[in-house]
Structures are given as C-alpha cells and as structure tokens.
Amino acid sequence: MTATDHRTFIKEYTRALREGDAAVFAGAGVSRAAGYVDWKQLLREIAQDLELDVDRESDLVALAQYHVNHRSGRDRINQLLIDEFLEDVELTATHRLIATLPLNTVWTTNYDDLIEKAFEDAGKRTDVKRRKEDFATTRRRTDTTVYKMHGDRTFPSDAVLTKEDYETYNTQREVFTVTLKADLAKRTFLFLGFSFADPNVLYLLGRVKQLLEANSRKHYCILKAPTPGESPDGDYDCKRFAHWLTDLRRYNIQPVIVDKYEDIPALLSELNRRSHLRDVFISGSAADYLPLGEAGFRDLCHGLGRELIKHGFNIISGYGLGVGDSVIVGAMQSLRRNDDERLQLWPFPQHVPAGTDLATFWRQYRERMIDDAGICIVLSGNKREEGGIVPARGVLQEVEIAQNQGKVIIPVGATGHVAKQIWDDAKVSPQKYFGGTDVSAFFEAIGDSTATPDALTRSIIEMIKLFDT
C-alpha cells in the first residue's frame, strides 16, 4: 500500500480540523515518550512470576489474563496501574501540540492523564469519560471530550487490561462502542502513538473493523517505518511492515510515514499553523490616529472587521484602545448573531490578585490570546503618556509573542507608529514575517497612508488569502 504523502495528509486533515470534523486517537507511544512504561515494561514482573519471558510473548493481553488466572484475581495488576501511572512526568511536545489543535473529540487507550493535563494547560475545558457511568452527565461549556476507551488509573479495577476484558468489552463498555462507531462515521481520525508491535493495535483495529460502515470516512495514522539494522529483526520487520500497511486499507486508514519519531511534532505544528490560518488576531491601539486621521482609521477598523467575517475568517481581539471597539462594530455588521467562535474578545483585566505581577500576568494573558490565531494584523500601536505619544509596548510584545509562536504577521504600515516600524522591518526581512509566501503584490499597498480605508481593507484581505491555500 502506498503511504499518503505529507502534503496531501496536511491539506486533507486541516480541512477536517477547520470544519470541526477531526478527532485524534492517542496510543501508548504518545505517553511512552513522556517516560511512562509500555506494556512490556508494565508486565515484565508479572511474566517473571509466571516463569515466562515477556520478550518472547507476542500477545501481552493474554499474558495479563494468565496472571489473573494464576492469582484468581487482579489485585496486583490494579496496583501496578496505580504505581506506574502516578509518576510525575512532564508533558511532551506531542501532548502540547495535540492540545493546540481545534479538536472537540479525543480518544485514547492510555491509562495516564497527560492528554487531559495538556488541554488544561492550554486553557481548554475537558469532559473526561472513563467509565460508562460518566456518560450520564455532561460537563457544560467544554472545549474537548476525552474518551478513555480502556479506562485509566483513577479506577484501576475497571481498566481494560486482560483478555477477558477485551472479550466482554461490548457488554461492559457498550456505550464507548456506540459512541466510537458514531465518531468513526462522522469524523476524520488521526491515530498517533501506535505501532504494528503494539499489543493493543490488533484488538483496537478488530473493533474498528466491526464498527466501520460501508463507504466510511478516510482516517490517517502516523507511523515510523522500521529500518534494516536498527534491531536484530530489522530486516524481517521491514518486510512485515509493508504487509501491515497494505492490511490497513481494510480499515480505511491511510498511513503517513515518518523517518523518525522526532518528525511527528513538526507535522503537528504544521497542522496547528494551517488549521488556525482563518483565525486572525488584531493587535493595535491608537491614542493618535495619524497619519490616516480618526475618521479614516476608524473606517479601516470597521471595514476590516466586516470583511474578515464576511470572507469566513474569525477575529480575536484584545479590545485595544481606539481599535477594538471599531473592529467589533464592523464584525457585528456581518454576523447574524453573537458568535463567540467567530468573534473572540479578550479585554485586559486591570486588577489581578494580590501578589501577582501585573506585567507577567499580562504577558501570559497575551500568549494565551494569540495561541489560537494563525495570523496577526498590526494596526497603529501607540499610547499617550506624559510628554506625548509613544509606541505601545503591549503591541510590540504581541508582535514578539506572535513571532515566537510562528504566526504570520501583517503590519499595516499605512496606520503608522509600531505598525509602520514593523512594516519597514518586513520590507527588509520578509521571511521573518511571511515565511516563504510571496506578498509583493499587496505589501506596498498596505503601507500606503494615502490609500482609502476601503482600498487598504481589500489589500489586507487579499494578502491574508495568500496564506490560506
């Protein structure tokens, strides 16, 4: 089976992310990179108790069942789950990048809670389903539902570990099966952290096969291909891997091959970047409206808010002085109703808890605000201090944060002040702000302070479209 090339995968999965139809299924490899044990490590002592060699066992689920049979109970294996997955480990780049994607559904077979922590760290609310009882209630205003398909360390006696657990799954955890079937039909899944040597994979794929309907959606799985010589069985693994890729076709799963596991964060970063290219953060403030004048500057902000929404872009605004209110008025002209997904407002709090450094708080606030944007538009950027008009340090900081996060930055030089300063730098170093995209057709136009507000708006919108391809 020919693997899907990275360009095609990114384009198609980005479309699913933007349409709200994407899901991620995280396997053991995602958590293994954080330092948690894999199945072989978890069951090594258990195998020794049975006088078996875990490295010679191909069915580790059956091995767990042998242990339960031998002890007439699963008390020790429950304790192992508690002991091994209570270790305090750091989130990996993969966990954090998953949490940056616009996902409302995540499935996992992992017993740890790193997925949930990653979403919480990203400022997102999760509703976690560990047991069938959890389906009876729904946490309100959640961003993402996390389905722990095999339970987790919180309720070790309910975790799916043994052969009997798998055999009785549809009876004991039927609600998970029903929900997964519906998600496989209506969402495009990205499987991460799975390998053909993973003992869960055969059981998981078998369940997926049972749940798939005819003409079901296409799904993707990022896999590292084995290479000859990397292990004693490397040559054999390469041959077997080729057959396994062909077999994935039966599950409508398209493989996406990487040379090394370290390539996966780069793919996720690109998905994050592309999926947010329709999310536009508007940075700016204006106490002095020159060179456009107050009427011209406000007309530009009105038109920008109106046209961004009209062309299908979403707006994120920190409600900057002289900018935010005008952008909002324009946006509401194109919105049929108040929609906090299309228009996100982040007004800056002026009072913070005692002992909190305001500058540190505001920077962290800006980082979270900009995190979900793909493009940053810079307008004006000045404030009034004793002695006159000065550059707005907050706007400069927002540009710095956007650069650190790899955002596209569009400085509207025609509005002067910080925006003109950034525009001048972008003229000399376009790669720094626009990557490899050629913006020459519109760059000079957004720096022309004699242009009309409507002409500036058109140029900005057309320039943004260059990145959304």
UniProtKB/TrEMBL annotation:
It catalyses: NAD(+) + H2O = ADP-D-ribose + nicotinamide + H(+). Keywords: Antiviral defense, Hydrolase, NAD. InterPro entries: DHS-like_NAD/FAD-binding_dom, Ssirtuin_cat_dom, ThsA_STALD. It holds the Pfam family SIR2_2. Its EC number is 3.2.2.5. GO terms for biological process: defense response to virus. Gene3D superfamilies: TPP-binding domain. PROSITE patterns: SIRTUIN. Residues 3-270 form the Deacetylase sirtuin-type domain. The keyword Hydrolase applies. GO terms for molecular function: NAD+ nucleosidase activity. The keyword NAD applies. Belongs to the soluble Thoeris ThsA family. This is NAD(+) hydrolase ThsA.
